[in-house]
TrEMBL record:
Keywords: Coiled coil, DNA-binding, Phosphoprotein, Transcription, Transcription regulation. The keyword Coiled coil applies. The keyword Phosphoprotein applies. It holds the Pfam family GerE. Residues 7-121 form the Response regulatory domain. The gene is tdiR. It comes from Cupriavidus numazuensis. This is Transcriptional regulatory protein TdiR.
């Protein structure tokens, strides 16, 4: 998958800006969808598709910061580039602290904006691919037997096979057989890779919980 298969969402109540930016992106074969407000965007937003968001700060009804908060609560990972004709340092700091990747003042340089968006799309594709990989691992974890899950938890705690065997009252050989099956089911070749990938999934599960 490349950045060309991703999409740019443009949310701004300035119709002229939306149209001109979409046209600019079209010249480099980047697909864009334009929305005049947050409600319209949320109704069309596809979280399963890699995307970045060019978002105006001040809009009627729901402002850019409010939309960013909504997306954060939903666990969305799309990179956000804020734009504003009335930007200041506190505003840009707030945007970046809440997860935006950039804050650009209007009127902006078209080439600069294009470069920012292309960088955001690359990041979006990476985030999308990582999320897909974690989802695949989650599905594989669900297929582990109860005994395999017990052993996996102890492997993640750094316990050697002998300690695991003593705790579960089984032989070391049985533990090693289960460890091999776990690696095979999860599609990893080493214990180090197993630990890293499972810990990443568990860490992302914690951060994705709405709060």
């Amino acid at each position: 998958m490349t950045a060309l298969s991703a999409i740019v969402y443009i949310v701004d109540d300035d119709k002229e800006l939306r149209t001109s930016l979409a046209w600019l992106l079209e010249t480099v074969s980047v697909q864009a969808e334009c929305f005049a407000g947050a409600r319209e965007f949320l109704a069309a937003y596809d979280s399963k598709r890699p995307a970045c968001l060019v978002l105006d700060v001040r809009m009627p009804e729901t402002g850019g910061f409010q939309l960013q908060e909504i997306l954060n609560k939903q666990g969305a990972t799309l990179p956000i580039i804020f734009v504003s004709a009335h930007g200041d340092i506190p505003m840009s700091v707030k945007a970046l602290q809440n997860g935006a990747i950039d804050f650009i003042e209007k009127p902006y340089n078209p080439q600069q904006m294009l470069e920012k968006i292309q960088g955001a799309l690359k990041q979006a594709v990476q985030l999308h691919d990582s999320a897909e990989q974690r989802q695949k691992i989650r599905a594989k974890l669900d297929k582990l037997t109860t005994r395999e899950q017990e052993i996996l938890c102890r492997v993640l705690d750094g316990k050697p096979s002998k300690i695991i065997a003593d705790e579960l009252h089984i032989s070391v050989k049985t533990v090693d057989v289960h460890r091999t099956k776990i690696r095979e089911k999860l599609g990893v070749v080493s214990t180090a890779t197993l630990v890293r990938e499972v810990m990443e999934v568990w860490a992302s599960s914690m951060t994705e919980k709405p709060g």
